[in-house]
Design brief:
Chain B: One of its GO terms (molecular function) is ATP binding. Chain B: It comes from Halanaerobium saccharolyticum. Chain B: Its main location: membrane. Chain B: It holds the Pfam family oligo_HPY. The complex is a heterodimer of chains A (328) and B (335). Chain A has 17 helices and two strands. With 328 residues, chain A is an all-alpha fold. In chain A, 31% of the residues are buried. Chain B is globular, with a radius of gyration of 21 Å. In chain B, a hairpin with a 5-residue loop joins β4 (66-76) and β5. Chain B has 335 residues and is of the alpha/beta class. Classes of the chains: A mainly alpha (328), B alpha/beta (335). Chains A and B meet through α9 and α17 of A and α2 and α4 of B.
Chain lengths: 328, 335
């Protein structure tokens, strides 16, 4: 087991190097650069910068060097000084912007994941155990609605209903009076009061998916011989279901834990925008649009690293619950 | 119970499956008995209801769609108390305490019979501890090692920590037998225990079962479609066709003197080791659709001795005792 973890850990290092190259290439791909866009904007405003000024701007942002040098400088600073470059738009170090938003992003995705599992696992088990029961049909019906409904629309509807019924406008994780306040018990309470809407919205689609996955795999497992064997040795029904087929059917769920984070950041940009959440998603979108390359590269880098680490955690968990994975 | 030497008697047992296509009468009036310390072999083609019969005894029929709709399964418990298994709640505590304890079962596919995520030893220990909750774990572990040793698994102390995927099919079936024996059952149901194994391993497993029966005095029901298997181990043989036993007798009687045309057909379809080399004669035709069983004897259109106007009319007679203890359900033997 220790060996397995170490081996998996060593594989991560080259993977991260490849990811860094790809994220750098990706942010360089769109034609033009931040400076060119900037100059274009200046021109549009009627100001004509001369050659010297353009060169000055380019060297200030380090854009006059070949791309590979830019990459190595970026990597060197990141590894040795934790400096991920500066954002052109925010005029602020990238690491600061990420540090500001990453904790909230991670917290929301963790809590949404927890909520999904708490809701989906028991329902999925029930739905498979009592296949084609009324309960199963109802869950399936709502499950498909949950899958089909666009999240941002669900967010808007939920905000509308909360406003109509309580007169309380959800405008982010914190009520306006707490946004700039330092952490206190009152702020925590306020966060809890506001947080449930994004959590419910983000968790809905995921929950529906998890239920379908668990139901499907569990239905397969329930038909297997070992379930009958366990029954034939006199185990109590509830205990044997949880101990044998569920333990196998839960594996696909465990192996997707690592994907939760990028799903929240990548897929929920619109939701974050609608609910005014201070997560990385909207920043990433904005930075790609304005070719704010170090910010975009930094966010992609951090997200990919977290995904890789999340996947590693999934794999370790999977090895822990599934002996076949361990030995391969 | 008519007979005190029987440990189990099935009377007019009917297990039906209610599907969207219609009712499948998988077991439709089976009368069989198992003697103490003896082996009953049940033989028949795929789909004849032999497995369903076996699963019905331990109430392992998935419900829905399956259900025991009629008949009884009289089982004589340790204290001579007679209990009708067919009347028990399939999820109740009474049947649960019998499963794996007084009556245990081994299955056709050893490769999938153990849960993949726990060690063999753990799963056997679990069976012991379910029925002996007060037993210390170390004692259960020692018992497990002894059991694995008894069924011929080498280095049992080490193999106890192996996972199912690290065992071969034959080893798994041995481990399965060890688990079935863990609570010293009085009846072992073996549902096609050697079908998935190769012939040498098959012989070893059958030999093992016989040895264990000699040691423990348990009764065995062995279900198979393989005539060689039943003739080797069974004291009594029942031949099943479409949910009913068509012939039932002591092994010698039925092997030497098969009465039912279907039994004769089965016997003719295997090569004989000592006789002349003859052409094998498979039983003609196929088993009818169990949802639309034709009127009359269900074997009538495959039967070489079919009597027109008789066999395709009413139901075949209930069991006719042609010689002592040799029963057959066939118009040929009715008065």
């Amino acid at each position: 087991m220790g060996n397995y973890i170490l081996r998996r850990f060593l594989v991560i290092i080259p993977l991260l190097v490849v990811i860094s190259v790809i994220s750098f290439i990706v942010v360089q791909l769109p034609p033009g650069s931040y400076v060119e866009t900037y100059i274009q904007n200046l021109k549009n405003q009627g100001y004509q910068p001369d050659e010297k000024e353009i060169e000055r701007l380019q060297s200030r942002y380090g854009l006059n060097q070949p791309a590979y040098i830019q990459y190595f400088t970026w990597m060197k600073n990141m590894i040795f000084e934790g400096d991920m470059g500066r954002s052109f738009v925010y005029k602020q170090p990238v690491s600061e912007i990420i540090a500001e938003r990453a904790p909230m992003t991670i917290m929301i995705s963790m809590m949404a994941m927890l909520l999904q599992w708490i809701v989906a696992v028991p329902i999925g088990i029930f739905s498979a155990r009592y296949q084609y029961s009324i309960f199963d049909y109802i869950v399936t019906f709502f499950g498909f609605i949950g899958l089909a409904l666009p999240n941002f629309l669900f967010a808007l509807v939920l905000m509308y209903f909360v406003y109509v019924h309580t007169g309380w406008a959800v405008v982010g994780i914190f009520s306006p009076e707490f946004v700039d306040a330092s952490w206190s018990f009152a702020k925590l309470l306020d966060m809890m009061k506001n947080l449930w809407i994004p959590l419910v919205v983000i968790a809905t689609a995921g929950t529906a998916g998890l239920i379908r996955t668990l139901r499907g795999t569990l239905l397969d497992e329930l038909k297997k011989q070992y379930v009958t064997t366990a029954r034939a040795k006199g185990m109590k029904e509830r205990k044997l279901i949880l101990k044998y087929p569920v333990r196998v059917a839960i594996n696909p769920l465990i192996s997707t834990i690592g994907w939760m984070l990028p799903a929240i950041v990548g897929g929920e940009v619109v939701v974050s925008q609608v609910l005014n959440l201070k997560t990385l998603g909207p920043v990433l979108l904005g930075s790609v649009k304005s070719e704010d390359m170090y910010l975009a590269g930094g966010i992609i880098m951090i997200l990919s690293s977290l995904t890789v680490i999340g996947t590693l955690l999934s794999d370790i968990l999977l090895a822990w619950v599934d002996p076949k994975v361990r030995y391969k | 119970m008519n007979n005190n030497e029987n440990i189990l008697e099935m009377k007019n047992l009917k297990t039906h499956f209610f599907t969207d296509r219609g009712t499948v009468k998988a077991v439709d009036g089976v009368n069989l008995s198992v003697k103490r310390g003896k082996t009953l072999g049940i033989i028949g083609e795929s789909g004849c209801g032999k497995s369903v019969t076996a699963h019905s005894i331990l109430r392992l029929i998935p419900s829905p769609p399956g259900q025991i709709v009629d008949g009884g399964i009289q089982y004589q418990q340790k204290d001579n108390n007679i209990i009708d298994l067919a009347k028990l709640d399939a999820r109740g505590d009474t049947i649960r305490k019998i499963r794996g304890n007084e009556i245990s079962m081994i299955f056709q596919e050893p490769m999938t019979s153990f849960g993949p995520q726990y060690t063999i030893g753990y799963q056997i220990m679990e069976a012991i501890l379910i029925h002996n909750p007060e037993m210390a774990e170390t004692k259960a572990k020692n018992k497990t090692i002894n059991l694995l040793d008894q069924v011929g698994i080498p280095k049992a102390e080490e193999r106890i920590d192996s996972y199912p995927h690290e065992f071969s099919g034959g080893m798994l079936q041995r481990a399965m037998i060890a688990m079935a024996l863990s609570c010293s059952p009085r009846l072992l149901i073996a549902d096609e225990p050697t079908t998935a194994l190769d012939v040498t391993v098959e012989a070893q497993i059958l030999e093992l079962l016989e040895e264990l029966q000699d040691e423990t005095g348990m009764s065995i029901i062995i279900i198979t479609h393989n005539l060689a298997v039943v003739s080797e181990v069974a004291d009594q043989i029942a031949v099943m066709y479409l949910g009913r036993e068509v012939e039932f007798a002591d092994s010698d009687q039925i092997i030497d003197n098969p009465l039912h045309p279907y039994t004769k057909g089965l016997w003719n379809s295997i090569p004989s080791l000592d006789g002349e080399l003859e052409e094998l004669k498979p039983v003609k035709g196929t088993v009818p659709d169990p949802i639309n069983i034709p009127a009359g004897c269900p074997f009538a259109d495959r039967c070489p001795e079919m009597m027109a106007g008789v066999c395709d009319q009413g139901n075949p007679p209930e069991k006719i005792e042609v010689e002592e203890g040799h029963f057959v359900r066939c118009f040929l033997y009715s008065e």
